[in-house]
Write a structure and sequence with these properties.
two-stranded antiparallel sheet; Alpha/beta knot
């Protein structure tokens, strides 16, 4: 992989189980596990997108324990993983922050548990990521998935992760790890 790759976990707008657009809460495990996975795979930054100030504050307090509190000495690898975590109020703010760093807007890759007629295969996505000039934002949804408007906005819709049968409800942390490995993992 040569392209600047960013990831984001979107908490709004997403659906709840009833198909309503909601804001989801930041989960402690998502902060830790996604940051560690992103750092392992060389992602430039991991954005937590949540418009609720108290949710961002909570996440920052959790991170402070591992960055400058007692956890900083206890687990230095966690501190390093948190060095790439960023916060944003919206997807637009996230794209703007990436554009400010990269000099051009990121192309948006989304993930979804559903198949779409225009899905991008992982092989095609790996080829896209070989372009050193184009930044990409790989967007993951929380709750019951990204809204239709976000999906339609995407430049690329990655093929869903499929198991052995119809059951398809991975945690976002599991899906993220599988997808990053498919896109930029190295066989040794």
């Amino acid at each position: 992989m040569s392209a600047p790759l960013y990831i984001a976990l979107l908490h709004y707008p997403v659906y709840n189980r009833n198909g309503e657009v909601v804001v989801t809460s930041v989960a402690n495990f998502d902060i830790h596990d996604v940051a560690r996975c992103a750092r392992t795979y060389g992602v430039k930054a991991y954005y937590i997108i949540n418009p609720v100030e108290s949710q961002r504050y909570l996440a920052q307090r959790i991170m402070a324990h591992w960055q400058s509190g007692p956890g900083a000495e206890y687990n230095k690898s966690r501190k390093e993983a948190f060095s790439i975590v960023r916060f944003a109020d919206s997807l637009e703010d996230t794209c703007g922050a990436i554009e400010a760093v990269e000099g051009k807007a990121p192309e948006l890759m989304i993930t979804d548990a559903k198949k779409w007629s225009d899905n991008t295969s992982y092989q095609e996505a790996r080829e896209l990521l070989s372009d050193e000039e184009q930044p990409y934002l790989l967007l993951f949804g929380t709750g019951w998935g990204l809204t239709k408007e976000i999906i339609e906005r995407a430049d690329y819709k990655l093929s869903p992760i499929l198991g052995q049968d119809e059951y398809n409800h991975l945690s976002v942390r599991s899906a993220l790890a599988i997808i990053l490995d498919r896109l930029i993992g190295v066989d040794r």
